[in-house]
Amino acid sequence: MLSIILKEYRQRARGIATLGLIMTYTIILGGVSFFVYLARYTELQTRASTSSQVGLALCITTFIAQMIMSLLLALSLNASTIAHEKDQDTFELLNLTLFKSFEIVLGKYLSSTGFLFLLVITAMPIYALAFTFGGLTTLQFMQLAVVVVGMTLMISALGLMLSLISDDVRTALGRSFFFLITLGAVTLIFGGIMKGALSSTPPVVPIYWLGVFSFLMNPLFSAMEIFNPSVFTWSQGPVTMPFLMNNGLLWIWSALLQTVIAALILLATTVIYPRYRASKAGGVG
């Protein structure tokens, strides 16, 4: 497994595309922060906004931009790992090696996910700008980091599975982005319904659980609670899941659930891999 990880890292390190990706990623995040500061500069001059408000705005916009790019890159990198081997006709050669299925799956997953975390680290200086203005605590910063890690782990595992069951990179990317868009739209809809019901009685049971699932799966809701712990407080009566509401712990439950889902997806991919390999080789799948 270590050999696969080292091979993947060497392949990325030798390509000019890797350097371009890191530079583009950093420039986009820096550009977003710059335009937010530019938009709030007049308010700072006229004292219509405090520096802490500007710092909070910088952090929120940087987080949203980073989350969007992290999700897109997590799908793109992982959905092309095994599918790229098929496009280059090296998938059969990989299967002829002495590596076991779980070593190939974990090696591909750890190498691509590790590269994503490298990109996340490159954004740290941009987040540091928010600290210079105030409005963001170290605890909030760590909570946001946990949210990013949880979502990245889950989406990366999904992309790897779709990469295995797809015949080429184009198909894998199409399926991955379709799932991401669908998940984002569904969780925003039912999460919005759930949030709208906070000022009244809880919705019917199916909608309630869909709303809870949406809160846990969509990182935007976790970010909302991090910056405003009382945003999801019920206004009437007790709640069915007190650990999710009122305590400001949505971010940690969300990250835990997404990590568990990532582990289950990786386990399923490891089980599917030898059967898929046998079916492609003419065996019984």
What report would you give on this structure?
With 285 residues, this protein is mostly helical. It has twelve helices and no strands. Helix 3 (51-79) runs parallel beside helix 8 (138-165) and helix 8 (138-165) packs across helix 9. The mean pLDDT is 80.
Low-confidence stretches: none
Strand content: under 5%
Number of strands: 0
Structural class: mainly alpha
Q: Helicity, in percent?
A: over 70%
- Our Rg estimate from Cα atoms comes to 21 Å
How far the N terminus sits from the C terminus, by CA atoms, comes to 24 Å
Mean pLDDT: 80
What's the helix count? 12
Into how many domains do the coordinates divide? 1
Shape: globular
Question: What is the N-to-C succession of helices and strands?
Answer: HHHHHHHHHHHH
Instruction: Please summarize the sheet with the most strands.
Output: none
Give a topology summary.
Elements: H1 2-14, H2 16-45, H3 51-79, H4 81-87, H5 91-95, H6 101-122, H7 124-133, H8 138-165, H9 169-196, H10 205-217, H11 219-227, H12 250-280
Helix pairs in contact: 1-6, 2-3, 3-6, 3-7, 3-8, 3-9, 4-8, 6-8, 6-12, 8-9, 8-11, 8-12, 9-10, 10-11
List key phrases describing it.
single chain, 285 residues, mainly alpha, 79% helix
